[in-house]
Amino acid sequence: MSLNETPNANRVHIGFYGKRNSGKSSLINAFTGQEVAIVSNVAGTTTDPVYKAMEVHGIGPCVLVDTAGFDDVGKLGRMRVEKAEKAADKTDIAVLLFSDTDIQNELEWFRNFKKTKTPVLCVVSKSDALSNAAEVAALVRQETHADPLTVSVTEPESIARFKEALIRLVPEDYDMQSITASLVAEGDVVLLVMPQDIQAPKGRLILPQVQTIRDLLDNRCVILSATTDKLDQALAALSKPPKLIITDSQVFKTVYDKKPAESLLTSFSVLFAAHKGDIEYYLEGAAAIERLKEDSKVLIAECCTHAPLAEDIGREKIPAMLRKRTGQGLTVHVVSGMDFPKDLTGYDLIIQCGACMFNRKYVLTRVGRAKDQAVPMTNYGVVIAYLSGILDKISWGS
Hints:
Layout: E1 12-17, H1 24-32, E2 50-56, E3 60-66, H2 74-89, E4 93-98, H3 104-115, E5 120-124, H4 133-144, E6 149-150, H5 156-169, E7 189-194, H6 207-218, E8 222-227, H7 231-236, E9 244-247, H8 252-258, E10 264-267, H9 268-276, H10 279-286, E11 297-301, H11 313-326, E12 331-335, E13 349-352, H12 360-372, E14 377-379, H13 380-387
């Protein structure tokens, strides 16, 4: 598990962007008081983005992201810039460094961040060594209509001002949205039907289950857990039907057929579709299944980077379910991790996993790309509910 994945998915991601040797790494180190990033006068020292999880007073749990200079050159340099662009997709707050009067690259990144509604803190860096810092600041102000912050890593006062400016950009309700609060109330009994297939990790629970249980506890619910084969016994042990049943999506239909009429039904994947993605767009996207033909192309996007297994839901089970409906000629491409295509126009449908590994900002960046290119997009749990004929009978909250 890498630092750009869970447990950092629910932290504020603060990305540092600028040219090579613009002072990104030095600023991160001064801000944190730690040697988080390698500092060198050699251009291109930072290659792959460096992710550092921290607790910062006033900000809370966050991830600081040090990126390669976006003016890097050559074939390898272009690859480094592409990594920085992918990091930008998950950035909640962007720190954009300006170190000279040639600011065309910086302005392009500034406009891209604004397009994705990413808050940007413009910083004139290395002010102690920059003879024309005031000129650079005036130019930035003129072109961005933002008031840049002049920072020197050797001056504690300017680092303190930098921290205060960052704090002001953190949304007050960041990651405060409950996963289940719109479906349950204090004292409700919730039954969790846990997966028991080959992918279930021995001796531990997967992240969506852990986060959902924590959320239910925070909402003061009573929780009962069982595997699918013990569902009848679990229901029989209760004096009255549970308010909500949350199931592994793969057994949606089995659980639906056995659930009490009074109980609401959802799945971990559907809950995360609403929590991290755009549930309304996913519900619309599911209807595109009816338009799929044997010559159609489907993109399945996993956020996990686990080694594929024989019963893999994204690589095996969902493709098999779709081909059973549309024909064996259906083309299914699978990507994992951050390997998500920029050009989606060749696909008739995108199916995203629950995305517990990524922050909401990154998932919505994917959704936005699909919307911009008019490609339907949906989610694992939504697809399985649709193919099981029960999509209109499940819940996802508001």
